[in-house]
Batch of 2 targets.
Target 1
Amino acid sequence: MRQFNKTISFTAARILLVTLLLFPGACNDFLNEAPDNRVTLDNLDKAAQLLTNAYSIASPAFTDWMTDNTAYIRGVTIRQSHSRAFEWKDFVDDPNEQDTPAFFWFETYNAIAHANEVLAVLESLPATSETDKKRKRAIEAEARLSRAYGHFMLVNLFGKHYDESSAESDRGVPYVETPETVFIKTYKRNTVKEVYTKVEADLLKGLELIDDTFYSNSGKYHFNKNAALAFASRFYLFKQDYDKCIEYSNLLLGSDPGSFVRDLTSTEFQNASSSPTNYPQLYSSPQQRSNLLLMRKISLVQRIDFAHGPTSDVYDDIFGPNPFGGTDERENPSYQKGENGAFPARYESLFERSSLNSNVGTPYHIGIMFRGEEVLLNRAEALAQKNRITEAIADLQTLANKRYSGNINTITITSLRNFFGVGSGSISNRTVVIEWAVRERRREFLVQGMRWFDLKRFKVSIEHELEDGTKVKLESEDLRKVLQIPTSAIEVGGLKPNPR
Amino acid sequence: MGVIYESGGIVITDPKIIEFFNLQNIDYYSRSEERDRFVGLFFNGGYSYKSRYVANFTARYDGSNQLGESNAVRYLPTWNVSGAWNIDNESFFENTPVLSAFSLLKLRGTYGISGNLPPNASALLNLRADATIRPTDVEPFLGIVDLTNTELTWEKLKEFNVGLDFGLKKLNINGSLNYYLRNAYDLIGIVQTSGIGGQSLKTGNFADMEASGFEVSISTINLKRPGFSWKTDFNFGYTKDKITRLDFGPRLVDAIGQNGAAVLGGPRRGLYSTKFLGLNDKGVPTFENGEGETVFELDLQERSGLATTLIYEGPNEPRGAGGLTNTLNYKNFSFSFLLSFKYDYKIRLNDSFFSYYSDFDALPGDLKNRWAVPGDENLTNIPVILDQGIAQTGSAIENAYDLYNKSSVRVANGDYIRLKTARLSYQLPATWASRVGFSNANISLEGQNIALLYADKALNGQDPEFFSSGGVALPQPRIVTFSLNIGL
């Protein structure tokens, strides 16, 4: 009896053991069923679709509130983040608050993650035909370019402007090249130099492989060849590598630079100027040849009922006398904003309702992230830096021909010197031309988030007057010109904060 | 178009509505699928010796598809052992004088590990498809919902439980005592990340927690005479929990929330408050920051300043709870009532004060006592209603109102005693019932949620059991029922 019992238990144990061993294998197929309609990244179509999200929904345009383009406006809703920007206080907003450094940080790294997921699996995706192989390279190019652009914008907001003498020690941002696969990963900040080197590598590889033929629609919502060239133009200008800036700008602008400048003096723009929707639609349309890269941006900057902005005083300062003598068509159309604001029509204010009957939702606009005019102005500045004064002035004239209406002058270095009242003084031609180029940039990019970077590049101090008349000032090399990284990046990510 | 009322209320849809939906980026319809697959292997053994010693053993091996196609984390083995000693069945039981007073004596114990499948967590890259929101160039896209998390695992719980069941013959007392020790680990929560990996909020395992507590339940028959009896049931439990590992503490904004937050060394849901320093000479609330300065705003995104910037109020969940039932029977009358109580916890009052009130706001009655003229700051803690010119100009003062709602003056004790139910019934004598043709009849009057006998005055009449329970939920209603039961 005893013997029998033992046999039974022995057999039972064996059955149990065998079952336990077989169990996981037998059940894997059964459990491989996806729990919901998630998508597996297993072909080139899906890789390309994932890259559609590799463009940040955060706009750098909020930086305009920190510049001399902005003054105190009464009678509009000022959110806390707006007044912090205006007074250069460190932001403490929730990362979901649009138009803040934290929002820009989180959303831009989110875009970069999309590019990295694609690059991580791209080589293993099936591509047999020649077309597919070419497409794979085009996808790689788009992923690299969008990743480089994201990091480039981050390093210029959260790091010092590139300075060859200190870039090797200046704190930049982490350059992320692989997907995050653990729960919480700690990162370290690459130096500004390291970030620029990596951006350059991705940019050049992207330029080599980019192929616009695989884009449907206009292709303007993706990094196309022209957008990549414009990126290179800005990158090398910021890196103070002026020869390369000129080289890539030339590749875009070719023999007819004027074709990359929208003509604000044209009847098309003039006819649209009375409509608050038609004008911005025309301005940011993918059909404009000068618009090279468009992105959807969640932001309040295009709203005339929120935040500080340009006033008529600021307008007078920006659109003062010019050496061409005509009327600057960028000054109008503009709208009244609050009690004392003047707001230029650039972007159409769009709104995504959260549901049919809802009055809440997401405010957004279609932002122009690269455009022909910028490349032309980059080249003019780079040419001036290289003392190629005549060519630089020619570029400024090309832009002016489509900006100033009426009988306008053809400028020369002499007329430009006279305009600034420095005649035959000791100030160099180079300085004079750059001064005008930067003023054109201010007119051209008003409320679009470029001025901040120019003020950083040229170390300009900024003064704002508060409601009660007190003045606050941002010094030319103020530490606050380098925005503070989000608190979570310091406390969870283990990054060093920027000095204050 | 629309509802045609005069034709019987038929609905005719304007086809342009679809165009409108598309322009507004509203889905005309949507479709989703969820597939839940689960396999379990179960092994169970039991042994009993002479009804004195009982042992049980259970082993499970569970697998689920909810974490995605990842062999590493989808399976979880768990087990459990339990034993009992029926002392009253021992041969020496009858012969030992001390033990013979007992009618029942049983010692039980359990030890085991169990697992909990994390909801809304994915171990593998989770991509979702959608269409872009743009005026032109609309195209399908894929977006990251969750990044890969190779470290994700089940939430696990080790539990040790010991209990004693007893009955005393002469005193007519029956009861049980229970003590438990729980060690929960690899608990899952949501963390605000550095964002660098691309996902700002991540779900993962990052906390361990210990909990211990006891439960007592006793029922007695206090009096038993012919025609009269009085029974009492009493139960009481107390539990204490403590976070023993927390890789990432909460941000200040998380800690001051309505539901509390987990902080290392504190309970699972600890309630934290801002340090309110009273109103300033303009009636605006002021606060003390981590450096001891008087301020209107705090950096709520930071984590490190929690200990110096906030005050710990107490646990947000009741630690102690229990109930007391008395049942009296006298002849055909029966009367019973239940008192229930909870104690040792704090609740945050609803956010009532804002920098800006619109016509849609229901204003709190407390505003009657608000700051109105200079000097009032010495008399009241209710902040001033701000001028619109200040309320919407982005000043730091707006923050002060949010912080005020999360301060110590807006916290109440949750302790309460409630007369939950009372019931009086009368069984009609059988002779009366039969006279009208019924075999039996019973009338009763019962009330539920009759009275809140004790609650913190700071609640101002609000039900302490009805907090953070959603916007459209109704508080427990008071119900009075009269019933007549007849048997034919």
Note: DSSP finds 17 helices and nine strands in chain A.
Target 2
Amino acid sequence: MNCEPVDNNEAELIRQLRQGSRPAFDALVEIYKNKGLSICYNLTGNIEDAKDVLQEVFIKVYFNIKNFEDKARFSTWFYRIAVNSSLDFLRKRKKMYNLFTSLPKNEEGEEKEFPDTRYDPARVLSSKESAAVLDKSIAELPYKQRVSFILKHQNGLKAHEIAGILKCGVPTVKVHIFRAVRSLQKKFTSGG
Amino acid sequence: MLECLFVRRKLYGYFCREFAEAEHDKIKQHLDACPACRKKLEEIEELIKLAEARKTPEVNEAFWHDFKTDLDRRLNARLVPELKLRPGLIYKLRPALVYASVLVIILGLWTCRFGSRARRINIAQSAEELVNEINLNDELSLESGLNHDEGAYIDEFNLLIQLDESPA
């Protein structure tokens, strides 16, 4: 993932979008749709949900572009909206799920995003099931660890970009990722 | 063992090549000599490899076409909110609808009772009744200003007699 500063073309598109230009909006959609879909998909875990969330992200961009400050990077601002919208979606889905059942909680007392599925820790990283187990394990991570890990290792963002999205320092992001890796490692190996 | 503890805390940073060359080499030397720490590094490598292999599914042009169509529709809907009859409005109008219905019923009843004054033809059942009826007609004619001449009056009288005498 490369995250260049706002170039002249992008700055011009943003300026036009502030004036309500639909062609400028369409051009920005073209630029960011793939990266946006990737983030939304990795956070929601479903392509149709990701599509729905991403549409909402672009609508938010259209209506809130006036709040975007030129000194910031548009890409960081866009990714932050994508992450927050995806997490809002997960929260709503969790509420719907809670109508029928109560979810188990993780180590920090947060409810897991998905139902707990028992698995054998000895079954390590060797089959397709590992990917599903990894998804569930990631979903069980605390919020900031989860987002940091996904953005870093599934979306290829750099630590300083993640720091911009989460509004925290780069060292904090590195700690989140380190802890996430350690937790995941423990779940995939019996020895820890 | 103490060194293993330190190295294991730095394995992820080592994997991401976050350290200066000197520190990187130092860890590498330890890993070359320590199979247990090397195994831990392999686990991290496999974990990250698995995570990074989880790619977004390939989407085709049709997907993006649908995406853009839906996006435009949703955006337009927000820009121009649909005109909808507010739910409260129907309740506000309800008393007026009730009054209008009552008014229609009253008008209907009034029309039935007073609006239609169709006169029924009564056939006299006796000579006396016939004479009374004729007298009443005369009075009504006088009140309404009808001006019968004598011949028409006799013709009408004869017609009534004939009608009265004709078999039912």
Note: Chain B has a mean pLDDT of 81.
